[in-house]
Amino acid sequence: MNWLHYLVEANLYLAVFYAIYYLFLRTDTHYALSRIYLLATSVISFVIPLLQLGFLKSAEPKPIAITLIPLPQSAVIHYTNAPVEVVHFTWQDGLIGAYFLGVAVLLIIFSIKIYQLFKLTRASNAETDASYKLIYVDDSNTAFSFFNFLFIGTKASGADTIIQHELVHIRQKHSVDIIFIELLKIVNWFNPFIYLLQASLKTLHEYIADEQTATEGNDVIAYSTFLVNNAYGLSGSSITHSFFNYNLLKKRIIMLNQQRSGNLARLKYLLAVPICGGLLCVSTLAFSKNYGFIDIAPHRINKNNKSPQVAEPMRRLLVTQHGVSVITDKFSHQYPNGSVKYYTAHNLSNKAIEDLKKEGVVVNIISGDEVDTPKRVHFTANNNVINYNYTYTTTKGYNVVEDIHNSNGGGNLSKKVIITDKDGSKHTYYDEKISTDERKMLLDKYGYKFPSGKLLTVKLLPPPLPSAPSAKKLKLAPPPPPVPTQPKVYNRPPSPAPTLLKNFTLVRPGVHKLPPSPPTVAPIKTTKLLPLLPPIPGFFTKSEKAC
Question: Taking the CB of residue 268, how many other CB atoms lie within 10 A of it?
């Protein structure tokens, strides 16, 4: 509803301009300048929203929120049929309906008034002059003018003065102002200031005609008396200039006899210049819009490289979880204790990166310049992408927005496409509701095939299954030393020599005798074994018999 936002913004400016007129310019006698002010500001109010001051905003990259990076053999892509979404009547629909109803009613009333005047112009009792056409209204005490047509009743007194007054309206084309304001009122009927502006403009027209008529007659008092004596005549249509207007009689006489404003009073009309500048700044900074088509003060050009001075590139987050990566401005994660934290490139600390890594989420900060595909995915911690948005332009130049969203949070997905027409109107089509003829129309008129291959439901891979719990691993001791082998004994015949000790040990002189080697025992379970004794040079054993 960008057009509705535009209307609201323009009418706010119209109210500001009229408030300035009412407070500072209403009592001045520079009627021509006041007329120009009211007409010009009525146009400027609707031009300012279309303009921007680019230097007031820092240059930023394209506002791409999130980009999906497909990884080979990592993401499982499912095509799902969206359920039929029930369209409910919202307050926005009621607001739009009420607006167009008001426009239709005022347009019908305006058409009826134009038709009635057209019938009067076809009257036979008329006199044609070079600059106007005088039409007599039988058995009536009225007098009014509309463009070059001057209507006067046959019962009206002082016809010459009335004609002289109405000819001022005809010469200065006051009817053009009235038609312009009438059309403006039809479009902006909801703005009460438009009705005040219309009344003020018609009052200025009467002031101008009274001033020139009294000046030509050189008798302001006599003309004022004439107005009082003819105050009860019949007025014409609201889109005409009626000479008889009892409601304006007092104001017309007061302004007719008021002292003329000096030349310095003209400077007050220059208030419109800073007001225009201020409202232009407000329009640039206070309103987020896409209808500001004209940038009258863009960023300054750098003399060295002739390129606009832009801000530092936007930083984004590369989030990887279970084999799927997304690039996003922000994301949320729910921790095991139930707390949910939101992260952006500005508030992501090193500790948060480590905490997320423990949860299986790897986050890296990258430059926003690396993102150039306008895809948007809402990344959540429950391994589901529940919102998918893709915006692009068809070959025939129409803007298309494809959207998937979780309508009720329970896995039922709604799939739709929104196409923007050349006039700015938007048309929405749902996958379950669209007919074969509508599909063909979308292809022929907009160059769009519904649904396109880009409209997908994306699911992140589930986390790997946890392995079976293993027994607690003990730190095993090194293997026991090998059992010393006995030297090979050869069988010899028994010697008749006297029996000696079967085992004896020779020790080299100067070396202490060591205890016998420990007996071989079974290894015991321990976390660490004692180190082996180092060998001692010169030590040897002999069995059975000395060599």
Answer: 16
Distance CA(346)–CA(4), nearest Å, equals: 35
C-alpha distances out from residue 336 to 358, 373, 529, Å: 11, 34, 43
Q: Give the sign of the dihedral formed by CA 25, CA 252, CA 33, CA 8.
A: positive
With a cut of 60, say whether residue 313 has pLDDT above it.
no
Higher pLDDT: 462 or 47? It is: 47
Asked whether the beta carbons of 391 and 64 are under 8 A apart, the reply is: no
> For the sheet containing 375-379, what is the strand order?
375-379, 385-393, 399-406, 413-420, 426-430
What does each C-alpha distance from 501 to 303, 361, 496, 509, 514 come to in angstroms?
111, 78, 15, 21, 19
Tokens of 195: 């009705």
DSSP, res 204: H
Residue 48 CB coordination number (10 Å): 20
Quick: pLDDT tens for 46-81: 999 999 888 887 555 444 444 444 444 444 444 445
C-alpha span between 372 and 366 (Å, rounded): 13
Residues 6+ apart with CB under 8 A from 120: 135, 137, 149, 151
Distances (CA, A) of 532 to 349, 398, 501, 513, 535: 52, 86, 30, 18, 9
For the full predicted model, state whether its pTM sits above 0.85.
no
Q: Which two three-digit tokens encode residue 11?
A: 């009418």
Q: What's phi and psi for 436, nearest 5 deg?
A: -65, -40
Assess contact for 386 and 378: CB atoms under 8 A: yes
pLDDT of residue 452: 52
3-state class (DSSP) for residue 139:
coil
- What is the per-residue burial (b if ≥16 Cβ within 10 Å, else e) of 381-409? beeebbbbbbeeebeeebebbbbbebeee
Strands 149-153 and 133-137: parallel
Helix (H) or strand (E) holding 8: helix 2-20
Cα separation, 4 vs 12, in Å, equals 13
* H or E segment to which residue 415 belongs: strand 413-420
Helices vs strands, H then E, count in the chain: 11, 22
Q: Are 404 and 395 in contact (CB under 8 A)?
A: no
Q: Which DSSP category does 308 fall into? A: B
Instruction: Outline where DSSP puts E strands in 329-372.
Output: 330-334, 340-344, 361-367
For residues 318 and 325, is the Cβ–Cβ distance under 8 A? yes
Encoding tokens for residue 240?
């005409």
How far is residue 184's CA from residue 168's CA, in Å, rounded to a whole number? Answer: 24
Instruction: Characterize 513-533 residue by residue with b for buried, 16 or more Cβ atoms within 10 angstroms of its Cβ, and e for exposed.
Output: eeeeeeeeeeeeeeeeeeeee
- Report the C-alpha gap between 146 and 236 in whole angstroms: 10
